[in-house]
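Structure first, sequence second, as always.
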């Protein structure tokens, strides 16, 4: 019994980490873009950060290393599983390994799409015409680990405090932009990222990871609930709490003849606990002064695009307790068709007096 209450307390604390309310709430807008003129300090000559891509929850460092051609030496790009893998972050947010290493080029020629389990050895052998060899690749990290001014990426875990005479690569004092990007983002990086984790999610799920009213889900449905024929799809602007910056997204709003459907997505790192509720006092509602409308359903709940639950019924709570990383959750919140005079609204999870960070604020649907 004591163990039960300890686990319950542990879950409550962990859940607060993902869905904690802040009285000093700071709202922000999720912004993406490319920094084609990054500022940083490199510890090795002819090593560069060519650009930094800010895409949703991801930050992608495009780096290049120029080496003198030689008949004797080689360079190794460590895989994310290696103890000498690249790491990145800051002293405050902590250091993590990349999610993945992709698009490895040698002198402009693609030699490997990504490095997975095994590290990649690259020969530095050249000829009379090739005096230098340029190696470039992309390092994918979680963006929220790079919020602080002392952001850095390092070639191995041993380099958090690198010795003076090291020859390993380190990029320090990296300027992290929050806006004013030098180039807009036109890419499908997020879609590619999500697609790569479909099978991983399905293999990694187990009945202890997801519970419905504290009962493990034994099997997952095959098909989603079809939406009614869309009457219109609204382009929207909105804000989120700073604690959910670049993690919580309102993907869109669909109006049908009878319903308005809010499509939400939340990207999570490992060891975060969250819950979705259709219980008294914890149901989503939308507020546009002076009126309030409560949700009808939460439907089509997915983890890494794997359908977990078609519909969360009344008095039900769905909890996620998975160590799978990375993963993202998508779900739909259904309301009766909202009136046309609801223009600037807040989507609130639970009672307004308590609040939850899975809220979406200042939604403009004109």
């Amino acid at each position: 019994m004591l163990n039960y209450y300890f686990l319950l307390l542990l879950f409550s604390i962990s859940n607060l980490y993902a869905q904690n309310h802040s009285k000093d709430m700071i709202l922000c807008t999720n912004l993406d873009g490319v920094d084609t003129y990054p500022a940083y300090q490199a510890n090795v000559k002819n090593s560069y950060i060519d650009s930094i891509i800010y895409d949703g929850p991801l930050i992608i460092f495009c780096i290049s290393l120029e080496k003198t051609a030689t008949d004797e030496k080689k360079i190794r790009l460590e895989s994310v599983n290696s103890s000498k893998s690249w790491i990145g972050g800051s002293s405050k947010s902590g250091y993590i390994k990349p999610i993945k290493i992709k698009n490895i080029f040698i002198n402009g020629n693609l030699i490997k799409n990504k490095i997975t389990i095994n590290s990649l050895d690259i020969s530095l052998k050249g000829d009379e015409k090739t005096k230098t060899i340029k190696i470039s690749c992309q390092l994918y990290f979680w963006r929220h680990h790079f919020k602080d001014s002392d952001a850095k990426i390092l070639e191995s875990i041993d380099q958090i405090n690198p010795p003076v005479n090291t020859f390993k690569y380190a990029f320090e004092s990296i300027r992290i932009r929050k806006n004013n990007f030098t180039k807009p983002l036109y890419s499908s990086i997020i879609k590619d990222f999500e697609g790569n984790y479909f099978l991983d999610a399905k293999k990694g799920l187990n009945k202890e990871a997801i519970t419905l009213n504290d009962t493990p889900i034994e099997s997952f449905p095959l098909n989603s609930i079809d939406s009614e024929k869309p009457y219109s799809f609204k382009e929207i602007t909105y804000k989120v709490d700073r604690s959910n910056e670049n993690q919580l997204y309102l993907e869109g709003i669909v109006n049908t003849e009878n319903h308005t459907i809010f499509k939400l997505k939340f990207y999570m790192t490992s060891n975060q606990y969250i819950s979705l509720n259709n219980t008294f006092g914890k149901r989503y509602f939308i507020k546009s002064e002076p009126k309030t409308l409560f949700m009808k359903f939460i439907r089509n709940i997915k983890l890494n695009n794997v359908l977990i639950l078609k519909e969360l019924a009344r008095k039900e709570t769905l909890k996620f307790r998975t160590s799978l990383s990375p993963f993202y959750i998508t779900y739909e919140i259904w309301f009766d068709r909202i009136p046309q005079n609801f223009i600037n609204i807040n989507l609130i999870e639970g009672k307004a007096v308590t609040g939850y960070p899975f809220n979406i604020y200042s939604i403009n649907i004109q």
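Margin note: Residues 2-19 form the longest helix (18 residues).
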